[in-house]
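SAMPLE LOG
Freezer: B-3
Tube label: C17
Construct: single chain, 95 aa
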Amino acid sequence: MFLGKVVGTLVATQKETSLDGLKFLVVRRLTVDNEEASGYVVAADAVGAGLDEVVMVATGSSARQTKFTDKRPCDAVIMAIVDSWEVAGDEKYHK
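STRUCTURE (predicted):
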């Protein structure tokens, strides 16, 4: 899993039929200090996330274990919208 910020949306009118009904978002990785890291991922949205929200993303086989992605060819899924996090008692993010 990793933390990321939703920076965009992805629309695909032509896709594998098992992906119908999924919303796809572009997520930029964040460091544990809430700084943007290199790299983006397209993730299926299982929780109704929106632009500029900080989210938790699961990848690999774990991405196919949500109600929305079960038995679908997904490699990344947004599984939580982050309200806050802290490291060693220091709050790094608060919504």
